[in-house]
């Protein structure tokens, strides 16, 4: 499990006074970016140096409690599944009291940057995300 | 079915060159806002005049083809379910050739603005969203 | 002058109930993208086919009246200046009653995509933006 | 001077590969929110407990070097001016090598939440932002 901490910003909220739902997806992706950076395959490396990419093909989230500007959030990132050409991360969002306020899941596939076709998950990426288990 | 048309903007994309996944949720919500406006319960009315609100408690999306800046998109909005205290919309995103490029689903509950507790779907809202069938 | 019409979306607003200031910059850029598309040098062309790019080096905006979700906005785009290696657009935002609610200005320079150095404004781009005068 | 540290996220970038210009305004506002929180008048307090608000009436930014996903940024926040009904913050963005990559400026006015009219800067807010000098 990898943990990431952040704060709800004013621009994450909307005129209903709470987190706009799509911004929870930005927050969990921020956590995922931070994890990839930590295990050596951050987006600067992915975008500039790799011949594969990891597009999200499915995303989902549940919203259990409204979040307000200034709320301090911990995101727990879990590696839920590693397949031949895909992997799945799940996320739990906790408020400052440790209460579960949201969950999410993203499914990623590996594609060749040039052909845009699905390819087997490269060994370096497979090794990197499996480091999750030792964090 | 309600249809909504838009264009992928530069700020919808990211450094991987395609639509950032969370922005598909913004686009379907834009379509939903446009539908609510059309049937008389748009967000200006919801925020200023109603004692209930309609928070999203679940959202999910599939991404079938990458979308690029300038792509013209049609969003088809469908009312999938109306329950006692909730309703569900589904969305299909088509590119300019009519190809299905993404889908999404949002589940909304009705809550009292003051108590934040779940309440039965108010009659005006129930009637409004059911107009979907005649559009 | 080129005119562009849009609506303030829920995700453009924040918990203070009004347009979050940075989103006015997104809206004027949407208008600019729409103009470039109209004159034949839209972002799909710029990103895929040109060896130059047009980064913004200065941006500014004034906010004269708060904007709310659902507000219908007209953006007037003006070509204010064309120099050797740069050009400037100004923008006026009007609400549905024709009242001026905001203004903005963006200064763009032409850079070589590979070297990232400033280059003279290419002839095709110069011609394209000057079509503004005949719109 | 107050300093705030952050990282450029994938959703801050666009298909041109660099920070989308409006997101620099989000980043400096994040820094401003962090400062207000530090001096006791954070947005949770402003939105829930105060009878005034601090809308931005002018914003501007310069972009000196392109920023990429993963770039670590320090934002220096300076209190540039405190007037009778307004105040001005300036911002300097530095990359991880200490190079100045951007600047910004925001002008805020104090308005009454109910009447939306300009009011003198309240004493608590005046005192809070002046704490800048001792940070």
Describe this structure in words.
- The structure is a homotetramer of 135-residue chains.
- The first copy, chain A, contains three helices and seven strands, in the order E-H-H-E-E-E-E-E-E-H.
- With 135 residues, chain A is of the alpha+beta class.
- In chain A, the strands form two sheets. Chain A has a five-stranded antiparallel β-sheet.
- In chain A, a hairpin with a 5-residue loop joins strand 5 (86-94) and strand 6.
- The interface between A and B is medium-sized, with 25 and 25 residues.
- Strand 3 (56-63) of chain A pairs antiparallel with strand 3 (56-63) of chain B.
User: Could you give the distance between the termini of chain A?
Assistant: 6 Å
Over the alpha carbons, how many angstroms does the gyration radius of chain A reach? 16 Å
Question: How would you characterize the largest beta sheet of chain A?
Answer: 5 strands, antiparallel
Q: Strand portion of chain A, in percent?
A: 35-45%
Largest interface, by Cβ-Cβ below 8 angstroms: which chains and how many residues each? A-B, 25 and 25 residues
Point out poorly predicted stretches of chain A.
Answer: none
Structural class of chain A: alpha+beta
Question: Count the strands of chain A?
Answer: 7
Query: How do the strands of the widest beta sheet of chain A line up side by side?
Result: 1-4-5-6-3
* Tally of DSSP helical segments of chain A: 3
Percent of residues in helices of chain A: 10-25%
Q: How are helices and strands ordered from N to C of chain A?
A: EHHEEEEEEH
Mean pLDDT across the residues of chain A is 96
Shape of chain A: elongated
- Quaternary class: homotetramer
